[in-house]
Write a structure and sequence with these properties.
The protein is an alpha+beta fold and 288 residues long. It has helices spanning 3-12, 36-48, 133-140, 146-153, 193-203, and strands spanning 15-18, 21-24, 56-64, 74-83, 87-96, 99-109, 158-162, 178-185, 225-236, 246-256, 259-268, 273-285. β5 (87-96) and β6 (99-109) form a beta hairpin.
């Protein structure tokens, strides 16, 4: 297992302070604010640890309220709203400096048989036919601005392979606001379905807001943009492994004012739809 993936597993392994109270730490890697996917993943861990064994999350809905401070712990307080025969509902507040930075509602369900259908997976190149981040850096480092070089050289727990790898260096005009990205954990994970859900929750905040910028020939590397996730929703449909390649097919139906709305469908390599995502985020030109 890579060191960064080990760090992610450690980051998701919250300390229990009381029956419904947990403490999480942030990696000390020089970030100015806590990565939103980390807070989503940790909040899901906190909720999952208060439900009966064998129940898995089927949906979560969260709001980002304040930037997270990576220098201090995050306290997760879980409210046990309902324990039903078919569904269990939890609310989680992530707290720092005496104020909530993120709130989330999550619903858990025991799998049962029923109706089945899904949308087909887009036809895209296989991940093996696409360059990895280190290969992109080796090929194009001289063309990359400093913040892009730092991004592509940094070790991360999640590997990303966009199907348009030159998007950031050569943004095209007239493109629809669509993006397809292969994602997976960088090494095998333990056989724990709840952990795979939490790792995917972490990864689901990666790249999706950038889809709202594709039609405008922009990206999150542009220094004159201010980007921030505002809310995030995630539905789990079928079992999966987060350490195997998953296609994150994204679109942005609307951007208006300073808000971009984005959606994502997550497929296994054999075309099973395993999760769906929606997010709205701030996309604002920085003020002088």
């Amino acid at each position: 297992m890579t060191s960064e993936l080990e760090n992610l597993i450690t980051t998701l392994d919250l300390e229990r302070l009381e029956v419904n109270l947990f403490r999480g730490l942030s990696p000390q890697v020089g970030w100015q604010r806590v990565f939103g996917g980390q807070v989503i993943g940790q909040a899901l861990v906190a909720a999952s640890r208060t439900v009966p064994e064998g129940w898995l999350a089927h949906s979560l809905h969260g709001y980002f309220m304040r930037p997270g401070d990576p220098a201090v712990p995050i306290i997760y307080e879980v409210a046990r709203d309902r324990d039903g025969r078919s569904f269990v509902t939890r609310r989680v507040s992530a707290i720092q400096h005496g104020a909530p930075i993120f709130t989330m509602a999550a619903s858990f369900h025991r799998r049962e048989t029923g109706f089945e259908h899904q949308l087909p997976m887009p036809r895209v190149p296989d991940p093996e036919d696409l360059p990895g981040e280190k290969e992109m850096l080796a090929r194009h480092a001289e063309r990359m601005p400093a913040n892009m070089r730092r991004y592509f050289s940094r070790e991360r727990p999640i590997e990303l392979r966009p199907t348009r790898p030159m998007h950031y260096l050569e943004p095209e005009a007239g493109l629809a606001p669509l993006q397809n990205v292969w994602i997976r954990a960088t090494a095998p994970l333990p056989d724990d379905r709840a952990l795979h859900q939490c790792v995917l929750a972490y990864a689901s905040d990666m790249t999706i807001l950038d889809t709202a910028l594709v039609a405008h020939r922009r990206s999150f590397f542009d220094a004159d943009l201010m980007l921030a996730s505002l809310d995030h929703a995630l539905w789990f449909h079928r079992d999966f492994r987060a350490d195997e390649w998953l296609l994150y097919a994204q679109d942005s139906p609307s951007a208006s004012g300073a808000l971009g709305f984005t959606r994502g469908l997550i497929f296994t390599r054999d075309g099973r739809l395993v999760a769906s995502v929606t997010q709205e985020g701030l996309i604002r030109l920085r003020r002088e």
